[in-house]
Amino acid sequence: MNVQTESFIRDSTAAVQNKSLQARLRVLTSFTVRRDAAFAQLKDGEALRDRAREIKEQTISNLDTYLIELEKNVVRLGGTVHWARTGEEACAIVLELARKNNVSLVVKSKSMVTEEVELNDALEHAGIEAVETDLGEYIVQLAHEKPSHILAPAVHKSKGDISELFADKLGVANLKEAEEMTVVARKRLREKFCTADMGITGANFAVAETGTIVLVENEGNIRLSTTLPRIHVALVGIEKVVPSLDDLAVFLKILARSASGQKMSSYVSFINGARKADEADGAEEFHLILLDNGRTRILADEEMRESLYCLRCGACLNVCPVYQKIGGHAYGSVYSGPIGSILTPAFAGLEKAKDLPFASTLCGACREICPVRIDIPRILLKLRSDWSEGRHDSAGPSLPEKLAIKLWAFAMRHVFIYNLAFRVPAFLQGPLLEDGKFKGLPSVLDGWTQNRDFPALARKSFRSMWHDAE
């Protein structure tokens, strides 16, 4: 998994100053408005979220049992199951299947897990053309970029950006409306669907009791990717298994609502192995690759385990005040936003992603909107604590940071010192204020005022006001 989180501070600062990006990110609020309206129509919406969490808790706690059941039933339906411990192993399995079947062109559906293992790069290096068929993914692939949002990969691009991209890459100029661009993309992709030998997808769910792979989409490209090519390969993280079709029904009621505010997505495909003799369409071969890539390590950590409950709906990104200002690329990982801030350190190591757990206001909006109620703020605090205490593989915080933390801890344990630390600056701050605010703080504190003013310290503390009120 390629992560570039070392430049998070620099990239997020640049993103905040990017006016075009800021304009594009405002559309995220519409996702949340539609989500709230969709849930309001459900009489038992909150109960469904509780039930979904219960199913996830029970499934993840017994993951080995359900994975074995899933494998047995996929094989029973004529499919082949492969196990990949790492992203490299997953890519190697796909390449072996492609070479064995003389595959030169692959069509892909939107899949976070294939982004996670960098499958497109592996295929390209092997001389195999891989074409993204989700419109947003197709756009970012043409631009040689990574997706910036789980649900809307090209949300950072305007219609003008895409028009220029199509003129440059596809030779089709002067496109003004989204419908015109969609027609062009559809025509180009249709050629690929009809000539590809292999279709590669992820999966939203894998049902253990039936061996069914379930794919949720709005564009229809997944149905074409799974039925037209001779070979269908589904690359799936092991946490996507659900025990039964009854359990699946719970998730299908909340997934589309959380992601896009729809009651149900336009298409839901149920893949039961390869095409049977009496069936008109479908792939001749079906391969399911079950990917670990660090997931069993997360499973073993009781405090991190619930991050495996994630449905990849993107709802937490839409309400996060940090994501709403910096977008997805600044996170330097395929998983961005609040869920990315806990998944990326777990997958790549805290030392590589140490800034991400701190990229949160801890407002709790992500926890409130998560369809399976993942307590993201609690996990963020755990990761911050791990970093501050040096409970990871590298050096940990710098000496000034360690000293500041120790001083803060000392002050918190001694009321007199704590009150003194705030009251003295409150009486001395006058010369530093402009219009009653700090326009710039000195030295290590200047980060607070790089993009905003800082309010003056109150002369009277909340504790004193509370005491007076009593």
For the structure shown, list the relevant keywords.
globular, alpha/beta, 49% helix, 470 residues
How would you sum up this structure, described in words?
- This protein is of the alpha/beta class.
- The chain is 49% helix and 11% strand.
- The chain is built from 22 helices and 13 strands.
- The protein has helices at residues 8-16, 19-25, 28-40, 45-61, 63-76, 87-100, 112-116, 119-125, 135-142, 159-170, 178-195, 221-227, 245-260, 295-300, 315-319, 323-326, 337-348, 365-369, 376-388, 399-413, 415-428, 462-469; strands at residues 80-84, 105-108, 129-132, 198-201, 205-207, 212-217, 231-237, 241-242, 267-271, 285-291, 433-434, 437-438, 454-455.
- The strands form three sheets. Strands 1-10-7-4-2-3 form a six-stranded parallel sheet, with helices on both faces. Strands 8-5-6-9 form a four-stranded mixed sheet.
- A hairpin with a 4-residue loop joins strand 5 and strand 6.
- Helix 17 crosses helix 19 (376-388) and helix 20 packs across helix 21.
- It is globular and about 85 Å long.
- It starts with 7 loop residues before the first helix and ends with a helix.
- The relative contact order is 0.13.
Distance between the first and last residues' Cα: 56 Å
Shape: globular
Counting DSSP E segments of at least 2 residues, the number of strands comes to: 13
Mean pLDDT: 92
Strand content: 5-15%
Strand order, sheet with most strands: 1-10-7-4-2-3
Helix content: 40-55%
Structural class: alpha/beta
Radius of gyration: 25 Å
Counting H and I runs of at least 4 residues, what is the number of helices? 22
Spans where pLDDT lies below 50 across 5 or more residues: none
